[in-house]
Structures are given as structure tokens and as C-alpha cells.
């Protein structure tokens, strides 16, 4: 699927890589993004008929992977996008909900990952239940992903700070459905498999904003460990058109940024990781053999330099790429080659 990309697109990609590869530009763009984040309410003072929504961002701790939740406030009430992970992540969010004096009219879960849905159960206990919206596939996967975290044994490290039972979304929304909550009209996007097995997004056209969960990651290394890198590249190509008119994207990790920059950066990251894993497979065509450690290290060296300006969810960058991204990507690309050879 990667090789299906045309030549002009590749040339553009190389330009994008050159651009994003420049550290000074990257730093400047991060500063710009930070500045934009500070003036966000002024930037989207757009809708003529009603008051512009206020958007507040809440970030979980480094130990719970620096995930974002967004509280969107209209004159009628509050809409929350995602729910953080640990009980100790929640006090600022709970405080803001209570301080607003407005009802929480609905919550949208962007994708079935623990760092985004884990905090919903304790949140609802603290502020009261609200309708929980998600796409069908995300709703189907929440309980399963929660159980897998226990089966794999890593979530137990958080002890009582992680509430054991996950809240399953009770309101299913479909692709391109208009979801009206608290007087705001959101357009739902079901983006399919990308960073997670399913990724949904909310577009708020009146304010030229989008909330995309982990479909787009800002100044963070893209996670391809679930083996969806080829589908992600295709989804990123479509996303440019789907986000037409959107000026600012609120991602699942990292700061607010314009969509073109995020899409270009995320595409470049995934291409770079695929190029490295392709080299490993070329050198080790037998799927039963592990790629040579020296080759893996050389790949990690190159990617570490390339992603030096990106955050890695509290893990050392090499550990994140080697232990979380490479295994899923290797399996995915070996399967692609096997399918292509039949
Ligand atoms: Zn996440």
C-alpha cells in the first residue's frame, strides 16, 4: 500500500521531511504552537450567532502517557472529549467542570485506549453520569482493551489509582453524523484503524476546530505498534480533505496545531519507521529469524536523531520505538510482503 503512493506525492514528502527535519524550524513551530494554544479562545471567536465555545485542555501525568482531554464550554453546557487515565489525573478536570457551574451534557471517546478512557469511571462518580458517545467499533473495543491491560499485567503497576472497570460508551455515532450537544453542532468522523484499531474525531465547523484523539499526534512519536501503519497513511491522505476548513486541531497528545503541519509530520514519521523496518526485513527475509541486533541499533540511531524533537510518552525514545513500535510494524510489513508474494 505504501508503494502505491505516486511519485509527485513522494517528492512532496521529501520536501516535508527536509522542512520538518530542520531543528530550528521545528523549535520555532513548537513555540508558535504554544503561542497559538495560549490565544486559542481569541482565534476561534468565529460563530456570528452564538458565543464562541471556550476550549480547555487537560493533560495527564507523564506516568499516564501525557494524554489530553478537552472541555468545550458553550453558553448551554459542557462537552468533554476523552477522559484521561488515572484518578490522580482528574482533579484539575473535575475542578473545572464544577467551577463552570454548567452541566456536562456529553462525553466523546475518540478511541479505545486506556490512557483516554481509564479516567471516565471515576470522573462520572465525581461529577455525575453523562451520555458517552463513540463510534461502534470503539465502543465494542473498550471492555476488551481494558481486560487486555490486566491480562498483560502492566496496568496493575498503577494500583488503586487505576479504576478497574471501564465505562462502555452508550451512544453510538456514525461517520459524518451531526452530533448536537450543548447547542454545538459537531460532525463525527469515523477514521477507521490508525493509531488505535478505531479512531473517531469531532469537527466543530462553526469554530473551525477539530478534536482528533490519537489519529494525529503533536510533537509525539506516532504509535504504530498495533500494525495499522499502511491504513494510517491512507487515512492521513483522506484526512486532509476531511478537515478542510479546520484551522486548529486538538490532538490526543501534545499541543494544538494546524492540521496540515500535523498531517505532514505524522506521515513523515510513519514513512521513516516503515523505511527502517523495510531494511530490517530485506536483511532478514526469513520471518522465523530475528533481525540482527546491530542492524536494529543502527535503525534506532537514525530514528532517534530524526525524532529528537518529539516526546515519547515518558519512555526513552529508543525503548518506545524498539519495544512498542517495531514489533507490530515488523509483523505488519512481513504480512504485507507475504501477501504480495502470493
Ligand atoms: Zn493516547
Automatic annotation (TrEMBL):
Highest taxon of the lineage: Bacteria
Ranges where the Metallo-beta-lactamase domain occurs: 66-253
First and last residue of the signal peptide: 1-45
Keywords for the protein's UniProt record, in alphabetical order: Signal
Coiled coil: none
Pfam families assigned to the protein according to its UniProt record, in alphabetical order: Lactamase_B
Similarity annotation: Belongs to the metallo-beta-lactamase superfamily. Class-B beta-lactamase family.
Name of the featured protein: MBL fold metallo-hydrolase
Species annotation: Pseudomarimonas arenosa
Amino acid at each position: 500500500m505504501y508503494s502505491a503512493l505516486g511519485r509527485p506525492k513522494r517528492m512532496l514528502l521529501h520536501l516535508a521531511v527536509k522542512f520538518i527535519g530542520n531543528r530550528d524550524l521545528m523549535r520555532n513551530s513548537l513555540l508558535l504552537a504554544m503561542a497559538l494554544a495560549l490565544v486559542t479562545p481569541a482565534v476561534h471567536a468565529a460563530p456570528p450567532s452564538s458565543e464562541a465555545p471556550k476550549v480547555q485542555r487537560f493533560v495527564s501525568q507523564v506516568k499516564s502517557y501525557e494524554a489530553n482531554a478537552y472541555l468545550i464550554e458553550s453558553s448551554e453546557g459542557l462537552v468533554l472529549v476523552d477522559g484521561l487515565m488515572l484518578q490522580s489525573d482528574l482533579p484539575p478536570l473535575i475542578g473545572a467542570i464544577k467551577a463552570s457551574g454548567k452541566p456536562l451534557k456529553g462525553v466523546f471517546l475518540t478511541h479505545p485506549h486506556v490512557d483516554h478512557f481509564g479516567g471516565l469511571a471515576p470522573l462520572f462518580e465525581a461529577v455525575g453520569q453523562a451520555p458517552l458517545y463513540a463510534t461502534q467499533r470503539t465502543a465494542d473495543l473498550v471492555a476488551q482493551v481494558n481486560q487486555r491491560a490486566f491480562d498483560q499485567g502492566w496496568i496493575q503497576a498503577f494500583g488503586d489509582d487505576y479504576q478497574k472497570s471501564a465505562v462502555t460508551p452508550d451512544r453510538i455515532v456514525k461517520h459524518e453524523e451531526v452530533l448536537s450537544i450543548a447547542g454545538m453542532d459537531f460532525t463525527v468522523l469515523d477514521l477507521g484503524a490508525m493509531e488505535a484499531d478505531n479512531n473517531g474525531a469531532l469537527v466543530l465547523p462553526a469554530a473551525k476546530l477539530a478534536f482528533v484523539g490519537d489519529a494525529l499526534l503533536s510533537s509525539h512519536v506516532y504509535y504504530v505498534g498495533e500494525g495499522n501503519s499502511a491504513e494510517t497513511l491512507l487515512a492521513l491522505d483522506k484526512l486532509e480533505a476531511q478537515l478542510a476548513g479546520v484551522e486548529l486541531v486538538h490532538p490526543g497528545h501534545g499541543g494544538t496545531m494546524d492540521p496540515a503541519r500535523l498531517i505532514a509530520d505524522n506521515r513523515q514519521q510513519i514513512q521513516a519507521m516503515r523505511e527502517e523496518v523495510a531494511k530490517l526485513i530485506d536483511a532478514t527475509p526469513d520471518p522465523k529469524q530475528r533481525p540482527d541486533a546491530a542492524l536494529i541499533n543502527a535503525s534506532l540511531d537514525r530514528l532517534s536523531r530524526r525524532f529528537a524533537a518529539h516526546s515519547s510518552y515518558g519512555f526513552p525514545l529508543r525503548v518506545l520505538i524498539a519495544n512498542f513500535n517495531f514489533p507490530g510494524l515488523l509483523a505488519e510489513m512481513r504480512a504485507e510482503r507475504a501477501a504480495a508474494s502470493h
